[in-house]
Specification:
Layout: E1 4-9, E2 13-18, E3 21-26, H1 29-41, E4 49-53, E5 56-60, E6 65-66, H2 78-93, H3 107-123, H4 129-139, E7 148-151, E8 160-163, E9 166-170, E10 177-180, H5 181-189, H6 196-203, H7 209-229, H8 240-246
Antiparallel strand pairs: 1-2, 2-3, 3-5, 4-5, 6-8, 7-10, 8-9
Helix pairs in contact: 2-6, 3-4, 3-7, 4-7, 5-7, 7-8
């Protein structure tokens, strides 16, 4: 019998791997609804859905390897990074899904969430006040009107698989929906700024790099406390706290 591998687990959800099958258990069935719907609509390679129960989704493993992970070394040729950029562009150009996603929060809601999180980070001693203040200033650039696109919403580098410099699978669609395209680009390149040029070469259109940098600050500020409270190391080299320090 294959061993059960815990891929990720916390209080909201857990993902297990058994051989060539991934089982995602989610406390909120609505997130699984979003995931299944998004994978059916996305014009990019996605995992095959094997079956679905109210709080469990089973998908087939995708082939290939990721280009790295946050805080780890990046791999892959410039062509592979460009291929990822092209796949992201294909997603963003697709017809809009029916609902907003994580990258589609309103400017007012995101600003309020960011202000509350910055206050909590300082008040509870997670980060020094000057680091938070500087990144809140940088983050303001992301809080502007945007044209809705079909976004993944959690396009971490570990969620995109490539083989022979082609994208062969994109996983974890529970945050997908209408949103800001630059949020996806920022999430994918978070901690791997040196590959931004390659990704944008594949993406094939001019984008505002200051907005991408601002989203790096937004995503990191919003993630640090959650990560620490759920047992993850946001202070590991190359991870969110390093990203915030790089803005200084």
């Amino acid at each position: 019998m294959d061993e059960v591998e815990v891929v990720v687990a916390h209080s909201e959800r857990a993902t297990l791997r058994v051989g060539a099958v991934f089982l995602k258990v989610d406390a909120d069935p609505a997130r699984l609804d979003v995931e299944v719907e998004a994978m059916s609509l996305a014009p990019v390679p996605t995992p095959e859905v094997l079956w679905r129960k109210p709080v469990v989704l089973a998908t087939a493993a995708v082939r290939g390897t990721t280009l790295g992970r946050l805080g780890g070394p990046s791999t892959g040729s410039p062509a592979a990074w460009a291929a990822a950029g092209a796949a992201i562009r294909a997603l963003h150009d697709a017809p809009l899904p029916p609902r907003p996603g994580r990258a589609g929060r309103s400017i007012a809601a995101l600003s309020a969430e960011l202000d509350a999180e910055c206050e909590a980070l300082v008040a509870n001693g997670f980060l020094p006040a000057d680091l938070v203040a500087r990144n809140r200033e940088v983050a303001e650039v992301a809080l502007r009107p945007w044209t809705p696109a079909f976004t993944h919403g959690d396009l971490q580098i570990a969620h995109v698989f490539v083989e022979d410099d082609e994208v062969v699978g994109i996983i974890d669609w529970s945050e997908a929906g209408q949103g800001d395209a630059l949020y996806d680009l920022a999430t994918f390149t978070l901690g791997h700024e040196k590959h931004l040029d390659d990704v944008l070469a594949g993406y094939g259109t001019d984008v505002d790099r200051d907005v991408i940098r601002a989203w790096w600050s937004v995503r990191s500020l919003l993630a640090v406390r959650w990560l620490i409270e759920h047992g993850f190391d946001a202070a590991a080299p190359g991870c969110e706290i390093d990203v915030l320090r790089s803005r200084m």
